[in-house]
Amino acid sequence: MHKWYQEAGEQNDVVISTRVRLARSLPGYPYPKRMNAAGRQQVEQMIYEAATNENAAVGHQFAYWRMEDIGRTDGLSLAERRLVQPDFPADRMGGLLVTQDESLSLLVNGEDHLRIQVFRAGMELESAYAEADHLDTILDKELHFAFDPKLGYLTQDPANLGTGMRASVLLHLPALHESGSIGRIAAGLAKLGLVLEEEPFDPSNEEEQTSRYLLSNRLTLGLNEEEALRNLKSIAQQLLVQERTARLSLAEKLEMQDAVSRALGVLQSAKMLGEQELPDLLYRVRLGIAAGLISGVGVEKIDALLMELQPATLTLACGRRLSQSQRDGLRAEVVQRVLG
Amino acid sequence: MTPHRQEEAKKRVPAHVRVVVDVHCPVCGASFDDIVRSGRAGCAECYHTFSDRLKPVIERIHGEAVHRGKVPGANLPQPRQSSQLVVKRRALREAIDTQNFEYAAALRDQIKALEEGGGRHA
């Protein structure tokens, strides 16, 4: 089963992935936080029908998950694959429609009645937005999303009013992190309505050092979608250049080469790999590949490993319950199949 | 306060101010207090029900900005209303040219109604 995160994306030496999300609501229904079960059912039904049987124009097949019915491991895996926030399955109130490669999904009755969500590997802001926009236009014909000429799309959180769009790129910035310039860069970007913040692979692990940063737009009211995307892309491209330049000097440092070699060494010879230690190791190897110190494997293989070796996702792929040490052993086997 | 004094006090407060205290959104039942406390609107209609009181809240987040992005339904074939407007405007010009002012007045009313009643409501 081919997934979006297995693709070799544009500029993926630095840009891990792109995400565009649109927040929409249905007029006449309370927002999810105030809605009762009957209301939620109706909203879910309407969105489901607009996206599936009724609508050949949609052009996609969706798998459908109801959070009320989903099993614990399936729910955890959806969160691991970044399709939903971790508390979404636990709240047991929403639904998720998702395409087979998981690049396009509809979140129902989460933070808003509907969130359209598109993922791409690498830097793909225009095409990700185009896909989200296209689906939005089609669904709007059936669902008539709540809209005001001055306030734009009406969302549960006033902070999302207007375009209802959050576009973001996930960046790997180990060299800029090492040089200590991220703080200064982030402060400068805030004035442009862009946010650059740490985005750890596993937020529960405080020791994590993967140098992952999320660059996203925060302005939704007062500028149009194209302008917001242009700003985001322009800043992302500047960061790309800065990171690549900084990597040139970083790659010459013996300490860095040593860190990369050690990480590769552990990954290639360990008999067990724990879920907490894996991201640091794999991100060091990712840098090594991008900087030309390691050859024979593309960074997209690293990104795919990271996704697939998460505990619930690994368990599902295996088709049966595994103990901690069985998982850790399996993880080592899979990594060695890829990294040799 | 005695009931009599309450009544007297009430009469001194302008009617439109008195009513504000117990407004609830007709769709979801939220009060302005609910919205402020949760930081979330109760439903899309809340943005109309409480538009005056939400204005400073929205301005604190977005400044004085107004929506300049996508408008739903803009790419789709124009609704029939638009062609009605075009026809009526042309008829209005003709009516004025031919000094048929009663007819012109009637057309002006119809045009006004189409312009105000058209477009999207939340």
Automatic annotation (TrEMBL), chain A:
ATP binds at residues 17-21, 115, 166-170, 199-204. Keywords: ATP-binding, Kinase, Nucleotide-binding, Transferase. This is ATP--guanido phosphotransferase. The keyword ATP-binding applies. Belongs to the ATP:guanido phosphotransferase family. InterPro entries: Arg_Kinase, ATP-guanido_PTrfase, ATP-guanido_PTrfase_cat, Gln_synth/guanido_kin_cat_dom. Coiled coil: none annotated. It comes from the Bacteria. Gene3D superfamilies: Glutamine synthetase/guanido kinase, catalytic domain (3.30.590.10). It comes from Anaeromassilibacillus senegalensis. Residues 14-246 form the Phosphagen kinase C-terminal domain.
TrEMBL record, chain B:
It comes from the Bacteria. Residues 82-117 form the UVR domain. InterPro entries: UVR_dom, YacH. PROSITE patterns: UVR. Pfam families: UVR. PANTHER family: PROTEIN-ARGININE KINASE ACTIVATOR PROTEIN (PTHR38430). This is UvrB/UvrC motif-containing protein. It comes from Anaeromassilibacillus senegalensis.
